[in-house]
Amino acid sequence: MRPPLNLMAPDVRANPYPLYAQLRRGPVCQVEPGGMWAVSRYDDVVTVLKDTRRFSSVGLGRGFLPPWLARNPVAHSLVMKDPPEHTRLRGLVSKAFSGPALQRLEAQVRTLAEELAEATVQQREVDFTAAFALPLPVRVLNLLFGLDPERWPDMRRWAEDLLSIPASQPTPERREDIRRSIQEMEACFQVLIATRRARPGEDLVSELVRAQSMTEDELMSFLFSLLPAGFETTAHLLSNTLLVLAQHPDELERVREDPRRIPLLIEEVLRYEPPAQSSLRLVTEDTDLGGVRIPRGALVAVLLGAALRDEQRFTEADRFHPGREAQAHLPFGHGIHFCLGAMLARMEARLGLEALFRRIRGVSLTRQEVQWSQSYIARGPLSLPLRWEPRVET
């Protein structure tokens, strides 16, 4: 009997792309953990993400949360809603992530990026994830929502715990750690909301409290979902970019000589080593997809990371090639659940890379083996030890 295909197997977490290639030949089949139905081809992924009637976000907590977790902390978030509730909630928060809002924020993000880049490159050898990739989006979140930037180690732990829940088969001790993280997050956000009610500022939480358009549960769920999405995605994008460039020094030289190529570099990293690896949906009726019958009530794992290496969509899909003609379009999802923070993540990455590239000539890994995050939802290095070759001023 063939062993089950397991998204959480250690060799798959280290490199999921061979399994993804195998799955695309499927094209739809059940995988572990939990017997989910994996959708891996580009066209099938787009079909699922566009069809909220047959592939729903409502009730996802019942679909993947284990019984030892008493409640779903993001149950009232827009990521767990379909229209019309999704439309209402997205409309309430989308203004903060619009082009004009980000333009107002850009100068502050650039200042943060310059400060962090200077301190990071001066260290010569550094854990890039801890020194730069995580602090930058955490400090940007602080600007947006008033979260304490000094608590970024806690925030990272909370985010990792939330993202690991769907794939967890934890020990009793680990279960208690995850429950404790949720309790700590809830306490932190309750204080944040109460503070903004008493002393409103110019941040998003203050705007939402003033508008009185969200229930207490909706506001709390929004903050719970925002924490991992708001900085884990950007942190993984930055770390994945430096990892890929350390493996492709010719591309680093190319983009360093012409910083106008940075947006192209970011788009190819989002395709080649995407921070967002998968999304989940529930099947509302017996459904045919890719010639396979998926039963009502099944949990579907929409494998973005597999779709972005689909040979039918991208020429030389396993080759890192900034500037390729075929655009990916899927790194931040598709349809009504397209990531609200996509523009912000791209801006943070662009400004962060600009600040770094002005200060370096090269970069290398000090350890070839990378420890990856333990989640099939998001993927990035837990740490990234790098050695800089600083730019020599003339």
Automatic annotation (TrEMBL):
Keywords carried by this UniProt record: Heme, Iron, Metal-binding, Monooxygenase, Oxidoreductase
Matching SUPFAM superfamilies: Cytochrome P450
Any one Pfam family match given in the protein's UniProt record, by short name: p450
MF GO annotations: heme binding; iron ion binding; monooxygenase activity; oxidoreductase activity, acting on paired donors, with incorporation or reduction of molecular oxygen
PROSITE patterns: CYTOCHROME_P450
Family: Belongs to the cytochrome P450 family.
Protein name: Cytochrome P450
